[in-house]
Write a structure and sequence with these properties.
By secondary structure, this protein is mainly alpha-helical. It has one domain: Non-ribosomal Peptide Synthetase Peptidyl Carrier Protein, Chain A (Orthogonal Bundle). The chain has five helices and no strands. Helix 1 packs across helix 3. The radius of gyration is 12 Å and the shape is globular. 11% of the residues are buried.
C-alpha cells in the first residue's frame, strides 16, 4: 500500500468516526493539540486502522506518535513486516 492510500484511509477514519474537519488533517497535525484526539480516542483510532489495514501495529511504536506523519510512517513500517 502506498503512502497516498495510507493517508486516505487515516483521513476517512478521522472524518467519519471522529468528525474531524478535513482541513485539519495535515501531516504535521498533532493528535491532541490540533485534532482533539485524546488517549481513549487514540486507542479507538488504532483499532479502526488495524481492522481497515488487516495488520496489527506494534504498541511500542504507537506510544511514540505525536503527529499524523508519525502515524503514516508507523503504518508504512508495519505493512512492510511479514
Amino acid at each position: 500500500m502506498d503512502r497516498g492510500r495510507i493517508e486516505a484511509q487515516v483521513k476517512d477514519i478521522l472524518v467519519e468516526k471522529f468528525e474531524i474537519p478535513e482541513g485539519k488533517i495535515k501531516p504535521g497535525a498533532r493528535f491532541k493539540e490540533d485534532l482533539g484526539i485524546d488517549s481513549i480516542d487514540g486507542v479507538d483510532m488504532i483499532v479502526y486502522l488495524e481492522k481497515s489495514l488487516g495488520k496489527k501495529i506494534p504498541f511500542t511504536d504507537l506510544i511514540k506518535l505525536q503527529t499524523l506523519n508519525d502515524l503514516y510512517e508507523t503504518i508504512e513500517r508495519a505493512l512492510k513486516e511479514p
